[in-house]
Amino acid sequence: MRGKTAEDVRLLELLDPVAEAAGYAIVRLRLMGGEHQRRLQVMAERPSDGDMNVEDCARLSRALSEVLDPADPIAGEYTLEVSSPGVDRPLTRLADFVTYEGYEARLELDRLAEGRKRFKGVLAGVEGDNVAIDLEGEEETALVPFAWISEAKLVLTDQLMKRGAEARAARLNSDLSTDNTTSE
Q: Between 2.30.30.180, 3.40.1190.20, 2.60.40.10, 2.102.10.10, what CATH number should domain 94-158 receive?
């Protein structure tokens, strides 16, 4: 799910070690567009706190460019775009479903399960290689094989917005206390 196509997966193999060495984790990579005007979109975060600010995006972009330019793994011209996954982020790793347990998400499968491909509900963690989700109107927690999920994303809710605001406030307080400590 971190990469959709074989080309995405090859790029991840090339770029994952670069991102890790720079202190980041690639959440999702997509090479989009046709033969002309292609865009390489890389969503990343700091593994320590899940944050990714503008300076982090610029730093990672430079690190990735240092490898992409000489390796030239993409035919033709393209634009590199590095960004944060955002508050209503994609869920691309099994660990994401544990981290965001209790939050609402949409799942899209690559095959039919119980007569449908799309599910919406509250994440209930993982069991083995299955994502647990409490679906609206259902008594039982559904277990969806992680391997069947083609797309998953958090739903923008008040609860999720509050989590994002609290995380930003904690970062700002941490930055302020660090600035005060270093300036004394």
A: 2.30.30.180
